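Sample intake sheet
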Amino acid sequence: MEINVWANIKTLEENIQDCIKETYNLHYEMKKMRTMPKNAKIVAEYLLYLADNITEFNNPEEQYHVLMDIEDFLLYKQHFINNLDKIQRKHYWKG
């Protein structure tokens, strides 16, 4: 059986580049979360809550999309709250 070392090296380099790209994306998202500490705490608490119920294998690409969805949700919620008047805010937080 003949092994193509150069093909293996090329595949390894491609895998390393994919890991570097995912690491960069994760680092970027973590830097963004530092600017929103309250939101980061909410997300962290929610992820810890979900941890006991997660049974699938870890897939960083899918997890990245989940993180993006959570961030979008928080931004929509922040936009919603920012557009409430004083009376609406009082009722919103009361409920």
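Comment: The first helix runs from residue 5 to 34. The chain is about 80% helix and 0% strand.
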